[in-house]
Amino acid sequence: MESSESLGKWISILNRYNQNYISKHLKEYNIGSGQYIFILNLYCNDGISQDKLSDLLAIDKGTTAKAIKKLEEAGYVRRDVDETDRRAYKLYVTQKALDIKPIITRVLNESSSFLSFDFTEEEKLLALKLLKKMSDNAIKYLE
């Protein structure tokens, strides 16, 4: 494979344009492209520990802490001390976060739609399968 055709180049381009799109459409809600993923996962895992959220997203703990702090300051997340481990925090979405769930969902659906424009359903499924497989490979290799 030629260096101009590297997977990393195209993944980087996709990620950059996708993050720009998401940032642009969530800016008025004071949510950056690096923060929506945390809210999105908290919708399904309300009450999860901050450490477990980092593990779930395969994101380092420092990055998670910074993102959660910004989301907490913006009123989207509440951090409570874990009663079983006073050094840990449990994370909860606030009503403000629940109120914008349809907006976040819409923006992410629009993003997926333009990224897969003119794909057949089979191509969409294959692309998703291959991207998941590449992510799993990256996680295994880097751990």
From TrEMBL:
Protein known as: MarR family transcriptional regulator
SMART domains: HTH_MARR
One Gene Ontology molecular-function label: DNA-binding transcription factor activity
Classification via Pfam families: MarR (PF01047)
Superkingdom per UniProt: Bacteria
Cross-referenced InterPro entries: HTH_MarR-typ, Tscrpt_reg_MarR-type_CS, WH-like_DNA-bd_sf, WH_DNA-bd_sf
Species of provenance: Clostridium paridis
Domain (HTH marR-type) ranges: 1-136
Record field: transmembrane: none
Keywords on record: DNA-binding, Transcription, Transcription regulation
